[in-house]
Amino acid sequence: MVVMRKILIAAFLFIFLTPALAQASVVYVAQIKGEITPYTYDQFDRYISEAERANANAIIILLDTPGGRADAMQNIIERIKSAEVPVITYVYPPGGMAASAGTYIALGSHLIAMAPGTSIGACRPILGYSQNGSIIEAPPKVVNFYASYIKSLAKASGRNETMVEKFITEDLAIDPEEALNSGVIEVIANDVNDLLEKAHGMKTKVPVRGEYVALDLEDAEIRYLEPSLKDRVIPYLTDPAVAYVLLTLGIWALVLGFLSPGWHVPETVGAIMIVLAIIGLGYFGYRSAGLLLIVLAVIFFIAEALTPTFGLFTVAGFITFVLGSIMLFGGGGEVDYLVSREVYSQIRLIIITIGALLALFFAFGMAAVIKARRKKAQTGKEEMIGLFGEVVEPLSPEGMIRARGELWRARSKDGKSIGIGEKVRIVEMEGLKLIVVREKEKYPNEESKMR
């Protein structure tokens, strides 16, 4: 009886526990795309933590980056080293890259895989832009530091130290076949399923929780970590080109808003754009002095609009604007950038283009603004009394009308509602607000004027 009871218990455990054990193989997959910023570290930390909580067999990071900030990159590598699950960096999709900072992150991973048509390498550090717009090369001591750092990552993982050193000294980038043959990566895979099949049974190149782990990826359940709305938006904002364009467009919108009395859309949109740009530049690493110079340029432009100096403030604003724009991505030793040179070349082109457009805008637009302001000063508010307008936003009793081709805040004289499209006549002014009645209504003591 005792023997029979033991057999039954063993059979019971085998029947009920075997399926549970079979379902325990789980692999998480997450995507990291765009510039490497402090927010990228937040993403890595969140994704790895999710895999750790589920006790996953591994987490695969789909990486496609031109590089980014060195401090963020180092924090990400430290997080990978402390991970309690294997972290596989997979350079994906075809056409993607792990350049500059992305290469370091890959070399700090437990396993590296690449999709066909991708590249890895080109890690020479730069310090940003000088005030004349040229790229600031990192001094030899900085180059030597990163050369030593990347070699130490390769040595710790048993990868090719000589080849990875060329990523810095020669700014070399290589394709998957050369990377595999030279011992820089471990797997070339067409997709995630192909990667799981090829990497199954491989040992990690870096210890996990103090020991090298054989990857158990056979028949693993794949769980994709979907990016949040913030994850989707922040990479666009932290793209330095996008953040810079948002900043300049926001400035233009503010200036136009100040020149359009009674219509608050440009100011509102401009303020939102500037806030988003500051968030993006903050993640990328903006320089406070550059931002202050751009703010000063805005003050110059507004001063030109309010008190025309026939170009003096415009020239001052243009100079401070260009200098501030360059300093946003300038050198000075605060931050080392491990980012492709193409990114900085694009930024420089955008700065020159927007600066030229800004100069043209004020060169040709300010004459019209000055003329309009002089005309307004000569006529006075009495010129408005008796003119006709059309309601473009219902007056109930306040809204908007169009008079003399301009939008004005207006209020119904008798407090009654006036609908869109109705004709009205101006009978009074309170500051910049027009007091109106319907076109055919009479108003005592009105000095009628026909136009």
The CATH class assignment of the largest domain is Alpha Beta
Class from helix and strand fractions: alpha/beta
Low-confidence region ranges: 16-22, 331-336, 446-451
SS elements, strand count: 18
Architecture of the largest domain, according to CATH? Answer: Alpha-Beta Complex
> How many strands, what sense, and barrel or not for the largest sheet?
6 strands, parallel
Global geometry: elongated
* Oligomerization category of the chains in this entry: single chain
The whole-number mean of residue pLDDT values reads 80
Please name the CATH topology of the largest domain: 2-enoyl-CoA Hydratase, Chain A, domain 1
Tally of alpha and pi helices:
14
Number of domains: 3
Proportion in helices = 40-55%
Radius of gyration (CA) equals 32 Å
CATH-level-4 superfamily name of the largest domain: 2-enoyl-CoA Hydratase, Chain A, domain 1
Subcellular location: Membrane
Pfam family, one: NfeD_membrane
Domain NfeD1b N-terminal: 27-176
Membrane topology: Multi-pass membrane protein
